[in-house]
Structure formats: structure tokens, C-alpha cells
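User: Structure with heme C, C-alpha cells only please.
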Amino acid sequence: MSFQRLLPVSFLVIGSAVLVLSFQSFASKHTKKTTPDAEKRQGQTHHPIGWRFTMPKGDAAKGRAVFEKFECHYCHEVRGENFPLPTENAPELSQMGGLHPVEFFAESIMNPNAVVPKNYRDAEGQSPMSDFTEKMTVRELIDVSAYIASLRPKGSPKTVAGVGKVIAVVGDKGEVVIEHGEIKGFMDAMTMGYKVSPPSLVKAVSQGDQIQFTIDTERNVITRIEKKSSPAGRK
Ligand code: HEC
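Assistant:
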């Protein structure tokens, strides 16, 4: 065989060898046997499905002391507490615990401008609250957020019932995201993630289901969840 006829053939051979090799390395990267947990931690370029920023457990009693140390009561009233009364206009906090996840409070303190209700904006449309990023330790932030998350309206019932629609189920965390109407005496209509206790209860519902649920207001977890109907076309 002449060299001229051999040349395209050798290109073909080298070319396919390169293809096979690169496919092998691609395949080994993507089909390697790992446990789901290990997969979550290694080699994943994206965060796991359903990932949310989560706060470590805080100490509400220490957080109360942090609240006093930074004189948050200069602006915020907390009904039922004996802090000096505020001299500025800011949300009253005694009912906050049921309203938002603890991460929301941490954000309010680190980044007050992330969410500012219209009636509190200053002339520039900003929050009048300064961020505490330079002054507070991370531990203080965790504890004061836990303190606010522990606040409940006085005399709210031990359990409340709601109806809504499942937006997402995070099975491995025992969490469900629900778009719900007003829960009388406890919470306005909103879309929010809830822990479910025991976590296996989430198995009873899927995304899109209309549901009924019961919240334990002290622990802020769902203790009963029941499907009313599924989206059309699904059993
Ligand atoms: C100068 C007054 C001022 C001080 C001091 C202040 N805040 Fe605020 N805070 C506000 C105002 C006004 C808002 C409402 C606007 C907003 O959401 O930023 C607010 C909002 C919040 C919210 C969100 C409440 C909601 O309705 O969602 C939290 C939580 C909060 N503050 C916690 C704190 C903590 C904890 C401290 C002390 C470390 C503190 N604040 C100190 C004025 C203040």
C-alpha cells in the first residue's frame, strides 16, 4: 500500500482511538458507582436538587442576650418581653417565629435590603436597619436568629390546620414546600418550606397535590399531611 493511500486510513484509526478513549473517560466520570450521598459531595458541579441554605442549630436564650447587646429593641418591640420600648418604627417581633424560616431572619440581619416591606422603606427605598455584618460574630447571628424564630404569638393554639398545594417535596430532608392560604391566628397566605415530622410522612404527597395539613406551632413542623386531590391525569 502506498503511503498516500495509507494516510487517510491512519487518521481514521487514530481518530477513532481518540474517540474511544475520551468516551471511556467520559463514561467513567459519569457512571462511576457511588452512593447517592457520596455523589452529592464529590464531583458534582451543581448543588443537590432541593438544596437550600440551612442554619445550624442556635441557642435562643443566648440569642436573647445578643438582642439586648446590640439594642435591637431600640427599633423593635417584642411584646411580652421587658426590653426598653423602641423609639423607631420597625416591625414588632413577638409573632415572627411562625412567619418565616430561621434563614429568613439571618438574611434580615445580614442583608436588610434583601426584603423591605414598602411601609418601612426610607426616602431612597432602602431599609432603615443597618446590617450587622461587621459587628456580629457568626455564632451571635445564629443565636439571635434562633431567638427570633422561637417567638410565638401569645395564646396561639398548639396546632393549626391549613390547606394548600404542594410545590415541591424534598424527600431526603423530610421537607415539603407548600403554597397555602391564610392560617387563621398563625400565618398569612404564603409559599413556604416546612419540615415534616416524622419525615416519612412526605411520602404520602407529590408535587401538584392539593393537601390538608396540621402544623405543631411550637415546633413549627407539620405533623399530619393528607392528599385531597392530585393534578388532573395522575392518580
Ligand atoms: C435602626 C432601627 C433598627 C435596628 C437597630 C434593628 N432593626 Fe431590624 N428592622 C428595622 C426595620 C425598619 C425593619 C423593616 C424593614 C426591613 O425588613 O429591613 C427591620 C426588619 C427586621 C427583621 C425582619 C422582620 C420582618 O418583618 O420580616 C428582623 C428579623 C430584624 N429586623 C431583626 C433585627 C435584629 C435581630 C436587630 C438587632 C441585631 C435589629 N433588627 C436591629 C429596623 C431596625
